[in-house]
Specification:
Blueprint lengths: L18 E6 L2 E4 L2 E12 L9 E15 L2 E12 L4 E2 L7 E2 L1 E11 L2
Antiparallel strand pairs: 1-3, 2-3, 3-4, 4-5, 5-8, 6-7
Length: 111
């Protein structure tokens, strides 16, 4: 995609280029459980959308267990990494690192 107008950096980047792609797969392990790995890549070399010229990648693995009709339990592990130090280090807004790991536990109810 080509950027138009003003980007996250505040500069007029009418010729900025950014793009992303993702690969998702979901496997049924048994009747009530699935596992879903995914990989995502986002290139924003000019910093038009993220504010910093960078390449960001992420790898995620999700385990889903269906407890009942409309009720699911999920455990997800995610690892993100960037070509630049953009992730908060130790929860402070002044120190940054190039990677981040997240673990999420969730209960979902659909109706």
């Amino acid at each position: 995609a080509k950027g138009k107008g003003f980007g996250a950096t505040g500069a007029n980047l009418a010729n900025a280029k950014y793009w992303g792609t993702a690969l998702y797969h979901k496997c049924k392990i048994y009747d009530k459980a699935t596992i879903a790995p995914r990989f995502e890549l986002y290139e924003d070399g000019d910093g038009f959308t993220t504010g910093t010229g960078q390449s960001i990648k992420s790898a995620t693995l999700t385990y889903n267990y269906t407890l009942g009709e409309g009720l699911d339990f999920r455990v997800e592990g995610r690892y993100d990494w960037s070509s630049q130090a953009v992730f908060s280090k130790g929860g402070t807004p002044v120190a940054f690192k190039k990677n981040d790991t997240t673990v999420t536990l969730a209960a979902l109810y659909g109706f």
